[in-house]
Structure formats: structure tokens, C-alpha cells
Amino acid sequence: MMKKLIIHGGRRLSGEVSIGGAKNSTVALIPASILADTVVKFDSVPDILDVYNLQIIMESMDVHSTFEHGVLTIDPTQIKEAKLPSTAIKSLRASYYFMGSLLGKFGQAEVTFPGGDNIGPRPIDQHIKGFEALGAEVEYDDDTVKINAPHGLHGARIYLDMVSVGATINIILAAVRAAGVTILENAAKEPEIIDLATFLNNMGAQIRGAGTDTIRIVGVQHLESHNTHTIIPDRIEAGTYLAMAAAQGDGVLVKNIIPEHLDAYIAKMVESGVDLDVREDSIFVPKTTQFKTIKVKTTPFPGFATDLQQPITPMLALADRESVITEEIYPERTRHIPELNKLGMDVESLSHGLIAIRPSHELHGGVVSAAEIRAGAALVIAGLMADGVTTINNADHILRGYDHIIQKITNLNGDIQIVDE
Ligand SMILES: CC(=O)N[C@H]1[C@@H](OP(=O)(O)OP(=O)(O)OC[C@H]2O[C@@H](n3ccc(=O)[nH]c3=O)[C@H](O)[C@@H]2O)O[C@H](CO)[C@@H](O)[C@@H]1O
Ligand SMILES: C=C(OP(=O)(O)O)C(=O)O
Questions:
Q1: Annotated active-site residue in 117, 195, 234, 403
Q2: In angstroms, rounded to a whole number, what is the distance separating the alpha carbons of residues 243 and 380?
Q3: Containing domain of residue 39, as a range?
Q4: For labelling alongside 133, which of 36, 168, 244, 340 has CA 20 to 30 A away?
Q5: CB distance 316 to 355 below 8 Å
Q6: Which annotated residues bind phosphoenolpyruvate (predicted)?
């Protein structure tokens, strides 16, 4: 049964909020863990639906795991090949990382096409190109991808046609135990890729250059975990609370942040008139009354993240003039627009990937639906700003990636509840 969120808006937010572990690291680290020959332990694991669904997928292969108080323990030592449960696979995007990790482990993988956010077309041609370069044969129909490396995997030089987080990670997962050297060029540089490389290198992998656009991997035979890996903070969750605090707060401290992961975002918030106090691992958001119009273009890291264009939108509606967002990564990532308009915002999709946000100071509650995680985050912020009651249906999309959201917003003095639909 889907959940819905009910928000009584208009209350000012204040206090502190602490950011959880990064969803996009976690969902790569978990499939990566099956490459280990030992038990693996993660700390600072966010309490999000994606984690539970990844546990279900692993359980089908006899990979048992426990998840308590932010610590996830995974035992891949009894792993066996199995048909993976397609409902769980389709509930998230990152289930496609089992393609790379199963291929690395067994030399073959069969995985149903993944689900994930409905943000327009999400091809995986670069992942497949990478697997083929490493010596695998790939066959697929509408629903399933079958990958086979009858002669084992070997290192290769791979140039990505476009910067892709998923393809970069999937190729690392497949190459880490392949024979020889893999050089991945035009790789994505997201901090979550560095987190994955750190985890694998601590187990004996030889991955160099993660965080730059050229990654060099020397294959190894064994991976053994000797310590607990602490997951980096979620820069997208952090950016969401920064925008929420700016739009509706009277002074909010957002803790457990790596500010360097948010450089482009922080610069844009400051440009829009929010006088952020950036500290070593936290950011204070002061009460802000005068917002300025800005232009935003989403680009791969270190640019302004596509995952934050929707969360920053309600704040931009407080500016004196129209702001424009150019969504370069997923031009069809606009499913928040009709829903925000139902709450009284003036947001318009001008053309492919071009979104205008005009001033609208009179927001009111309404019944809306979260089509995907970040569209949902924008609705939560708008609901907190609006007068009256906002009901957000399909809230599971939000719970896929926002750790303890009810508790965190309640602690900030927001009025938000979760109920079964
Ligand atoms: C689980 C996870 O980490 N999800 C993130 C990841 O998604 P994901 O890894 O799916 O996104 P990619 O970085 O792969 O996509 C970037 C662009 O490349 C295109 N592309 C990608 C692969 C491919 O084989 N062919 C192709 O054409 C995509 O359509 C998109 O336009 O990065 C996105 C972009 O920062 C984020 O919005 C997601 O939150
Ligand atoms: C698009 C996102 O997630 P996923 O890739 O998991 O669908 C997101 O986190 O904004």
C-alpha cells in the first residue's frame, strides 16, 4: 500500500537537522558488497526504501543482511546464482548495479530492466558498451538483460560517449576483478563514485583516479573487508534541507555536510540572496526575506545537480522576478510542474528542458501527487510554505531516498504526518 504525506503548512522552521548517508552511494555499495569474499559492514546507512528493496534482491541469492541503527551488515559468503525478484528490481534504478557486480563475481548476469524515477528516457547503452568491451556478450529484450562472459572478463580501454554515473559505476564493478587493466575515460566524477572506489580499494581493489574523468583499474582476484565503511553524507538531501530552510526557516543549522560536494549549489543559493554560513561540516541558513532571481543550468558533477533543480524551485518562487532553470541532464524532468501549480505556484515548462519560475507569494494547500523522488521533495517544501493542508499522494517515491523525513521535519517545527493511502 502506498503512503501519503499530510502537511499543515505555514509554520516557520527552526532548529537543527542532521543529514544521513548518501542514497546514491548506498545503492552502489550494496550491490558492490557481493564482490567480497567476507562479511561487509556499512555505517551511516540511510533508512530509505531503496535499501530494503536491495536487501530483498540479495536475499534471493542467499546473501543475508541485517539493518539496525544505521548499520547494515551483509554476508555474501554463501551467495548462489538465482532469478532476481522483479518487483524489487523495478522499484529502484540502482538494481542495475547487480549487472556489473554479478558479472564480476560469476562471469554472467541476468537482470530485469530496472525502475527508478520517472524522469524521461534513461538508456543504458553505455553500460552495455562497457560490458562488451570487457569481453562480455550482451543480449536483451524488452524486459531482461542477459550478460555472459564465457571466456572471463579482461581489461579494456573504454571511452564513455556521455558522462554517466551509472555506467561509470557498473564498469568499475565489472572491471574490479577482471584480468588486466581497464582505463575508463570521460568517466563521471560524482563523490559517490569516490566513495565506492574507497570501499573497494580498502578491500584490496586497485582503482585509481575516481573523482577525475580518467579511472584506471587493475583487476585483482580477491576482495576482503577488514573494517566498517562509513557512507558519505547525502549532498542531495542536504541541498533539499538548505532550500527548505531558506524558503520557510527562521534560522536552521544543517549538519553532517561536506560543503565541497555542494559548491555549485551553495554558490547559486548565495547568488539568490541566502546568506549561508558555511562551516567545516555544517551550514547555517539564516532567515531570508529578500530573494533574487537566478539562472540555473544542471550539469554533471561538479556542476549544479539535476537532483536539486526541483527541490530549489519553491524557494525561487519567492524571488522578485522570473528565474529560469535549464535542465540539461533530464530535459523531461518536469513532473513537479503541474503539481506545484495546483498549490498556487507559477511554474511553466517553456520548451524542452527550459523551466520558468515566476513570483508567487500566495501558496495554498491542495491534493498533489509525487511522480518521483525529487518532484516529491519540491512538493514537501511547497506544502510547508503553503497555507492550509497539502496532501501528497504516492509518497513512497519520496521515502525511496529521504531518511527519517517525518522526524527531521517535525524536529524543525514542521507539521507533517504519514498515513496509508
Ligand atoms: C542511483 C543514482 O546514482 N542515480 C543518479 C544517477 O542516475 P543515472 O546513473 O541513471 O544517470 P546517468 O549519469 O547515467 O545519466 C546522465 C545522462 O546520460 C544519459 N545516459 C546514461 C547512460 C547511458 O548508458 N546512456 C545515456 O544516454 C542519461 O539519459 C542522462 O541524460 O545520476 C543522475 C545524474 O546525475 C542522477 O539524477 C541520479 O540520481
Ligand atoms: C533520479 C534519482 O534517483 P534514481 O536514479 O535512483 O531513480 C534521484 O535520486 O533523484
A1: 117
A2: 11
A3: 23-230
A4: 36
A5: no
A6: 23-24
Residue nearest to atom 5 of ligand 2 (CA): 93
Task: Give the number of the atom of ligand 1 that is nearest the alpha carbon of residue 27.
Answer: 1
Q: What is the pLDDT at residue 121? A: 81
**Statement to judge: residues 204 and 253 lie in one domain:** no
* Interface confidence (ipTM) of the complex: 0.99
In this prediction, residues 296-324 reach a mean pLDDT of 98
- 174, 319: one domain: no
Q: Whose CA is nearest to atom 14 of ligand 1?
A: 164
* Ligand 1: centre distance to CA 90 (Å): 16
How remote is the CA of residue 198 from the centroid of ligand 2, in Å? 22
E-only strand ranges, 309-382: 323-327, 346-351, 354-358, 367-369
Are 225 and 275 contained in the same domain? no
For ligand 1, say whether the CB of 24 is within 6 Å of any of its atoms: yes
Residue 64 CB partners (closer than 8 Å, separation 6+): 58, 74, 75, 78
Domain boundary among 201, 230, 259: 230
Q: How far is the CA of 12 from the centre of ligand 1 (A)?
A: 35
Tell whether 35 and 132 lie within a shared domain.
yes
111-125 pLDDT, tens digit each: 998 876 677 888 999
Distance, in Å, from the CA atom of 81 to the CA atom of 105, rounded to the nearest integer, reads: 10
Indicate whether this model's pTM tops 0.95: yes
Are 151 and 242 in a shared domain?
A: no
